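Morning F.,

Quick status update on the modeling queue. The single chain you submitted on Monday has been processed. Sequence for confirmation:
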Amino acid sequence: MALILCPECTHTISDKAGFCPSCGYPLKDAPQKRRKLPNGTGSVKRLSGKRSRKWAAYPHVTKFSQSGSPILEPAIGYFRTYEEAYQALILYNAAAPVAQISNRIIVNGLPTSVPPRYLNITFAELYELYYHNKFNNSKKKFSRASAYSSKAAFNNCKTLHGRKFLELRKADLQDVIDNCPLKHSSLELIVTLFKGMYSYALQNDMIEKDYSKYVSINIADDDECGVPFSQAALETLWKNRNRKNVGMILLMIYTGFRISAYKDIRYDREGEYFQGGVKTISAKNRIVPLHPAVRGFALNFYHRFQSEGGECFHAHKCRKEFYEVLNTLNLTFSDSGTKHTPHDCRHTFSWLCDKYKVDELSKHLLMGHSLGSDIERSVYGHRTLDELRAEIEKIQVPYCR
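Structure tokens below.
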């Protein structure tokens, strides 16, 4: 046995030690890229022996013996992993002395039952806990794109990073949305982040009220803008319908579903219709009969994404294939010079309904439009599957033979 210096606190220790007995610095079997605790936070120690909770979190040392050795306070808890102990210390140190009356703490002049250790936690600190819980500590696997979107939304909330989460109100959240110059889709990510963080905080008794549900986006949804494919472009697509991925574009054009709806869409092979939808109550779970010309494409879609052993549907991959096809066929830009997007397929469906005189109520039902204040149509406007099929088959398809 030899004596070495702890690289963290420079105390003399045995080279056989698994961790420094003074500061808890792990010396053996330490995971790579383990985060170092900030100065004054406390320490995390790995306990000896066979234990289910082998990591102990200790508060910051404030007392020392006459010889100068630190006197440890009792552990605040025991945890299965270093990360869990680390997060517990972050929360523990967020606490501060506060006034307490009848077991209820006073914050901003109002009583709250939130535990003291959560009172001073900031928006950024809570985000770190939320992100770790969702993307690192959850059995459900999220894509890298989802993690990147969460980080991007967080970066767009810099005015809140240093604010105490418990003191935030609806107006603070709404100011972030109203003052953000980004597009509607980016604002949607921020609102989603707010809702996720508040949900996590409620589940862990960090707050008493969810202000995220009152936040709104007060600009038009620019994702809904678009330009239909021209008749000439449709003819080009149909002439090349046997090319890879062209069928998916035609399927989107002749059903009117948003690209994101295809992740969970249901294909009824016997009834020859799609059922699903996203965005609004009117759009969700609607039924759209398949035009005879695209039923083969629907079957290909089923075999690719929904049959046993089929691949998972990813909207971003489908978008990439969409742009590759249009580029190959020289259809990237519309006649007006704007770049076609997948949402233009939905605009094309609307244009085809108008061109071939699909009745207005059927068109609204097929596209999942809200009927608004039109009580007569919203309450009494019904169409059977056969009636919807008759309307959609009014649409003429070039080169479908």
